[in-house]
Amino acid sequence: MKDWDTIAAISTPMGEGAIAIVRLSGEEALSIIDRIFITPSKKKMSEVPSHTIHYGNIVDPKVNEVIEEVMVSIMRGPKTFTREDVVEINCHGGIVSVNKVLQLVLSQGARLAEPGEFTKRAFLNGRIDLSQAEAVMDLIRAKTDRAMNLALGQMEGRLSKLVQGLRQHILEILAHVEVNIDYPEYDDVEEMTHHLLLEKATYVKNELEKLLRTSQQGKILREGLSTVIVGRPNVGKSSLLNSLVQENKAIVTDIPGTTRDVIEEYVNVRGVPLKLVDTAGIRETEDIVERIGVERSREFLNKADLVLLVLNNNEPLSKEDEQLLEVTEGMDVIIIVNKTDLPTNLSIEKVKQLAKDRAIITTSLLEEKGIDELEDAIASVFFDEGIEIGDTTFVSNSRHIGLISQAQTALEEAIDGLNSGVPIDIVQIDLTRTWEILGEIIGDTVHESLIDQLFSQFCLGK
Ligand SMILES: Nc1nc2c(c(=O)[nH]1)N(C=O)[C@@H](CNc1ccc(C(=O)N[C@@H](CCC(=O)O)C(=O)O)cc1)CN2
Ligand SMILES: Nc1nc2c(ncn2[C@@H]2O[C@H](COP(=O)(O)OP(=O)(O)OP(=O)(O)O)[C@@H](O)[C@H]2O)c(=O)[nH]1
Ligand SMILES: [Mg+2]
Where's the TrmE-type G domain (predicted)? Predict the structure, then answer.
């Protein structure tokens, strides 16, 4: 492996948990541990077999003072996470002692790792490609089972393999182009290659299109379907949020630090991850200017994939209800007529008329009625796009989506060129570009600053 510094970091959450791990990677990892770790039988870590774990004490050699009682894992490269020598010191969880161990390791010649630097080394040493490294980060952040499976698939290299296959096709096309450029005098060669070229290029273009079609669902699986609950005060918005959350308690995560007057919850409805936003707080501005309420919801509406618009069965349709119905026209909206346990004062006919083709569900959240129907409606918003989840390889990362659509444009230019008899060396340029752009997904043709920027988003110690 390349002779970079030996890096070290605490790879477990700070101050949490019963065990904390200080991880080292690099050429000096074994010699550093030998200077500060003493086992009862005085074993040298540079001599033990790889992938073994050892009990002993971490000792500051300067003052001969025991700092921690630990277990140390020894993993020699290249069969390690980074492909370099890796040493992991398993400490008792306390912040002070773990930090002391880290400081000691640093004083012995290791350097504090940057965020994501262990994974970056796995990439730079060729164990994983860029899209697999990005998947490691997605896995850490995954909030639902589906998002996790998506990340795992990408980590195993599903997207990478697909992209590599398409790049291989483009290389083959380019080889045919070469033939054409080298032997222009043979007309029959040209005719044959032209036909083959078009066929192969069209195949790749279709594959890219297929991949792009998964991107919307891929993003939703990754980030959650951004769902906003709107409605007048007291119609039952918060009750709706609570009932969806309670019904699906298992995979609910609170996101701390969101604006105080906006409640955001992750909920898994029939396998569809929702990022539910309850637009509470509209009420406070309500008394002052009625329009402000609608304006504020509009802000959230702009960012929403799905709107749950709640109406009150017990009250006549108000001006604000009508405004909300208007504002949300053309969006994915489920209209919920709530409080069906109370006498009906709402004209369902009028709602239907304003709803146009949007789904209307009736509920009594108080009596827990209509929630199944609502969940069905939510799931169908997601699944009606017509993509089967089963074995599909999804693109979910905006960087990848952007690159695939750029590649598609470049390839279309090549195909247009072929069809309109543009000189073959121009077509060659477009094809080469397509190949390069696809290479950026897996990090084969990518700028170093982008790599730095991507890995810096990782957490410390990863
Ligand atoms: N203690 C600990 N737990 C951990 C990690 C770690 O670094 N340390 N990981 C870190 O995030 C994850 C595990 N990821 C890993 C991925 C690859 C290899 C690895 O050694 N791969 C080699 C050899 C495989 C083999 O033995 O055949 C390779 O692919 O060449 C190790 C860990 C999760 N748990
Ligand atoms: N009878 C009846 N009451 C309900 C129903 N759903 C909610 N409520 C009640 O209506 C009141 C308002 O409910 P919330 O969920 O706080 O309404 P909201 O839309 O969030 O109100 P704001 O946050 O003030 O805008 C509460 O007292 C609920 O218990 C229902 O289906 N039937
Ligand atoms: Mg509320």
Answer: 224-383
